[in-house]
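name: query_chain
kind: protein
chains: 1
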Amino acid sequence: MFEKFSNIIEGKFAGPLEKLSNQRHLRAIRDGIIATLPIIIVSSLLMVVAFSYNQMPESWALAKFIKANAVAILLPYRMSMYIMTLYAVFGIGYSLAKSYDLDGLSGAIMAELTFLLTIVPVSIPDVTDSITALASKNAELNAFLQQLPSGYVIPAENLGSAGMFIGILSAFIGVEIYRFTQVKGIKITMPAAVPPAVARSFESLTPTIIIILGMSTITMWLGIDVHSIVGTLIKPLVNATDTLPSTLIIIFLIMFFWSFGIHGDSIVSSLARPIWLILLDQNTAAVAAGKVATHIGVEPFLQWFVHIGGSGATLGLAILFCFKAKSKYGKTLGRTTILPSIFNINEPMIFGAPIVLNPMLLIPFIVIPLVLATIAWVATAMHLVNCAVTIAPWTLPGPIGAYLACGGDWRAAVLNIILIVISVVLYYPFFKMYDKELLEEEKAKKLLKDKR
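structure:
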């Protein structure tokens, strides 16, 4: 029965889902956001350093130094992760343009231009005039206001996670306008003798005119605040994602697709990642402001408390195969997969056991992540563990990654170890049945060989 069901799934859905995961716009979002991960990882680790004095005795000189210089340590964070949408838009535009066989750099610039034109600069005098009127009797505040530079500033919050959805849409609009002018020939074509870089810049004149005039009309001249409109529309979606039921649904879908050999992360996680980044950035910003992070349902939560060893929490299964297997194949599989699993690489286990289309291992593969997520969620909600505030490199061993992701919280490392133990216990009865089956097959083959 299971085999028939799996054949139906593979025949009817594998193709369309594979096409969905490779759809150019979704792939551009995935590539653009993944390209920002080094920035997010490094800059958010500065957050761990800036507040590491909380984990040290107050008498330590290092603790005093870090506390006194916390603001300066966080300045690179404000120029990197704090404005991460600016970088993501460039990557999305580049990837989407390349998928159309267009010049990637021109596409990235068109995307960035479109996004920046959705943000209306604020005049500093406009901001300070009302404050000055109230502060006329306060000499110190008046002196501070006089030191502020004149001119225009860009609201930085729109360059961060709050502007992510607008950034994605802007990248699509900018590149599609660029593609339209190229396909329809609405461009200035230079002679062949002109250097390629110069020729590309002239070809980009037409889409640049369309983008600047079109976006400026909407946002700056008509005064339509697209960021507020989109923010209001997606707020329920963001809030809904940060719940245990939503997290369990996301995990189930990832596991379900993996069960049939379809990369669940490339489909489900790509769609959820923009929301995860918004929630994670809000956690990071809260900690930077001296407040407590409150969002549990972020991507590092799944990485370090659910998918320990890779999707399906297969580190527990790798440990069992490595140390408890009696079959020759099981022992070999365990020795081969244990090291990659420690560093969260589990394709050898998924396709080597195999777990894919294997009813005996699929049940724990799907159920165990749901159990671990529930336990970790409850522990975090009860403030036994801090919420994740940063993205640690995904190839780190679980306890180390959990410690860093939760801002240097040693309790996160302990929780990660406890969850690994739980995964071993829950995998054990299924592993034992499967290993016994492998052993019987090996004995049968050996007996057949001896008879020959």
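note: The CA atoms of residues 32 and 91 lie 4 Å apart.
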